[in-house]
Write a structure and sequence with these properties.
It is built from 16 helices and eight strands. It is of the alpha/beta class. Helix 6 links the parallel strand 2 and strand 3. The longest helix is centred in the last third of the chain and has 33 residues. The protein is globular.
Length: about 300
């Protein structure tokens, strides 16, 4: 039965219910062993009107973690071609096999892409290269770089997933933002980062954690690369004010580039941490007041 609520209002309500921010979706660590992205897909079963309105919101953001999931998603998109054109944000935690490039052709409007590069493909990465060329993402979020380079020894492996993705980043004419989500400091100062910032023709924004920025922003070489690459925005994944001490020692033109972005998980973690710090302080203050009263008497 159709709702009595005006469709414009219903559309706004369902859009809000299914909304997943880019930061929450692509920055938080959800590998094969972490909780998956969850949205209220059961709302599509309420009635045909809700199904029609909410389906584009459900398929706007998609996450795939294996070749089996990739195959199933491809089968659905082949049966309903309109669904593929609804996908704008795609996170790949795996599944870089034979079904990847066909999926790219079925979902040609992907513009925000997340890739877990530490996941090794059993087949040639040529399909991954073709898929990236088909999508032409404007934003790319890279996970697992430090792990793959340090543990897998991929730095000298030209056919590794990491090398394939980084080469595509360096030559992409559509990429505006590249985010190194969980890269370690040892990797960040390696030539790969400098090459990406200097060579990517359209790159104007770079993102990384506040922990890495605290170390990088005091490095002269990194500052020189930022200026040479004409980076306009540095997205700091952390809470407001985390870099205040470091930014006090950074040149003003670089300082103005930093923009804070935090996920819901970060906000919950900081609130929990603050509560743990405040609670003992209150107990100490209470004990101190009690002692003072006894002493005064």
């Amino acid at each position: 039965m159709a709702s009595n609520c005006p469709e414009e209002i219903l559309c706004d309500i369902l859009k809000h219910a299914f909304h997943v921010s880019i930061v929450d979706n692509f920055i938080e660590d959800r590998s094969l062993y972490k909780p998956r992205l969850h949205r209220p897909s059961h709302l599509l079963l309420v009635c045909k009107q809700w199904l029609r309105i909410a389906t584009p919101f459900l398929y706007e953001t998609v996450e795939v973690s294996s070749e089996k999931e990739m195959e199933k998603l491809g089968a659905v998109l082949r049966s309903h071609s309109a669904l593929g054109r609804m996908i704008r944000h795609l996170r790949l935690n795996g599944g870089y096999g034979q079904h990847l490039y066909p999926l790219a052709k079925l979902a040609p409007k992907v513009r925000v892409l997340g890739v877990y590069v530490s996941v090794q493909s059993k087949e040639s990465n040529a399909r991954l290269v073709r898929a990236l060329a088909c999508w032409k993402p404007t934003e790319l979020y890279l996970h697992g770089l430090s792990y793959s380079l340090d543990r897998h020894g991929e730095r000298n492996n030209k056919n590794s997933t990491t090398k394939v993705v980084l080469d595509c980043v360096r030559t992409s004419k559509s990429l505006k933002l590249v985010a190194f989500v969980d890269a370690s400091y040892s990797w960040m100062m390696a030539p790969e980062l400098h090459a990406i910032l200097e060579q990517a023709p359209a790159l104007s924004e770079v993102g990384m954690s506040s922990i890495e920025l605290k170390r990088l922003l005091v490095e002269t070489r990194f500052i020189e690369v930022l200026r040479k690459a004409e980076i306009r925005v540095i997205r700091c994944y952390g809470m407001d004010g985390e870099l205040d001490k470091v930014l006090g020692r950074v040149p003003e033109d670089v300082k103005q580039l930093v923009v804070y972005e935090s996920t819901e998980w970060m906000q919950r973690w900081y609130k929990t941490l603050a509560a743990r710090v405040v609670a003992p302080a209150r107990e100490i203050a209470t004990e101190s007041d009690s002692s003072k009263c006894v002493y005064d008497e």
